[in-house]
Amino acid sequence: MRKGINDVLFGLSLIGLAVLIVVRASDFPRISAEAMGGGLGPAFYPRLASFVLMGLAILMIASAIAQMGKESRGHFQAASSRTAAGHYRRYVTPLAFLVLLAAYGLAMSLFGFKFSTFVFLATCILALGRNEWWGHRGRIVAFLFIALFAMLGIYGLFQQVAKVPLPTGTVWGGR
Amino acid sequence: MFMHEMYVVLLQILGDPATLIGCVLGVIWGIIFGAAPGLSTTMSLSILVPLTFGVETTRAIAFLMGAYFGGVYGGSLSAILINIPGTPSAIMTTLDGHPMAKRGEAGRAIGLATIASCLGGLFSLLCLGIFAPLIARFALTFSAEEYVALALFGLSVLAYISPGNTLKGLASGVMGLLVATVGADPMTAYPRFTFGSAHLYGGLSIVPVCIGLFGLSEILTQLEEDKKVVIEQRIRNIIPRATEFIRMRMTILRSAVIGTIIGAIPAAGSSIAAAVSYAQEKRYSSHPEQLGNGAAEGVVAPETANNASVGGALIPMLTLGIPGDPMTAVLIGALLIHGLRPGPLLFKEHPDFVATVVVTLGIAIVLTCILGLSCARIFARLISIPKHFLIPAILVMCVVGSYAEYNSLFDVGVMLAFGVLGYAMTKVNMPIAPAVLGFVLGPILEDNLRRALMLSGGSLMPFVTRPITALLLVLTVLTLSASWLRSVVARRRGLSMPSYH
Known about the structure:
The complex is a heterodimer.
Chain A lengths: L1 H24 L18 H31 L6 H9 L2 H20 L1 H16 L1 H4 L3 H25 L14
Helix pairs in contact in A: 1-2, 4-5, 5-7
Chain B lengths: L1 H13 L2 H19 L5 H8 L8 H26 L8 H12 L3 H34 L4 H17 L5 H14 L3 E2 L6 E2 L5 H4 L4 H19 L17 H6 L1 H16 L5 H15 L11 H25 L5 H12 L6 H6 L1 H24 L1 H8 L3 H18 L4 H19 L5 H23 L6 H4 L1 H26 L9
Antiparallel strand pairs in B: 1-2
């Protein structure tokens, strides 16, 4: 049932997106077919694709609703708040890492690649490997060294091999 | 003419150790990523592309070809050893590969998979070398209508590669088409959906889009679960006997042909090639009941086919500029960055480059064979690298890889946004690969559709009067109908369709 609801919500978001594109495209300059040498203006193709997307999203929603109808007739699913909590708990780590990643991107421009990458790697390794070092203090040092070597390895790969100029940090007067 | 180019390029590469080392590193990178459960070859290529920005084109191609072929092969290692396909194309290999490993024949299964992969790869390489120049010469006669029909056919195949998810596959592809419209209109240069941002005027770059959709979204999914990979099997007697391959020569030939043809169909890929060749093996085998219980043919057939699809997928990519699978979509992005636009003109203007692709793929196949047979035990150990070391390093490479093309943090934001989108898509079982293929096909479709309509004065008649266009449009309708019918039949029978994305 939850899958069906997700499909309906996603289908509705796709319709919303398609409507937004159609509305936005209506602001594009209307160019006559003569002026375009018989061709079509900049709004033609995005509008066409949006209408196709809208049609597909409507079919997706209809299919999800039909499936949900079948499921509800087949058996009753008790929605327990405990299983729902468990379902959403699995998204906590990915969301936390997304926030961390965005912060890392910003920190890279401020503090440069080396410092921010080491801090990011150390934080992630310690957070993900907490079960490994908990109660083994010596391992924390080992993990920090691994973070340092990983940072230096990636730095060498991009800066030295690929010749990508990595940020040096505006705080230290770099770029 | 083309043979001469290949000969010259081969001599140049053999005389340049840096290119050979690049190819070796690419193969190792590909095998490790391919073998690691949860990390796909498309993801590995997406992260690898930025590393080639500052590298000379031949070396970059050698690196990428190594990673591409090595990655498709690498999936078989985890499929055999831990019953988890490292890549979607190795799903069928688990059926017989893992039972063989449980029987104590892990080494034999790996050996068979390695040699079969390389034989499949060599067959498709031969087809690539022979047919690509012919198709390119023929494609020079194509006009806008043919390209529109080809792109539409590619989109219809998207529906087919998402069995049970026809609508979602198509919606994902159309989303990709829409994302490709961001930036200056190709005909009037009017800025579309740029919201006044100069960063978006040139359109979204394929590198952060691919890294976000394939790299970050996969890592976010991996973060949901906390599984440890443990390899219990001992790997010994890896080198297989030649008599085994003589016995299975028809299996190899059949699977190589299937893999090359399916790989060459725009938007189809190695996963479908493996599934179809396994099904055919079951049909033609004299002992079909043994398949699924650790039969050598059950490893050889899908592994020959999925690696044969590599050369096959490069045919439409090089000759028409249309990706044969998601990995070639990423490769098209890499070539564009190096100033090369795949298509029939590439054969005329840069035959040396086309020869480089063919020769480096050949070298990558040989290296995969050597490394696969000699270092299987080492690769097996690398599969069990703890996630708490692997994931943070990949996340850093996702960020730096997105930043690298234009030294722009804006692209890091684009990567994050597409990572979230890709993650949301996986949560509603919407395949990601069609979105990337749509993103690559988008400009081809729009450009040619508008040009065709301009030339015909708005008439759609040329789409039905030109024989190749009409044939491709009929194939498009048939593909869509077949995909829809399959979904309906499966639903009526209460079966769930496998996902190939």
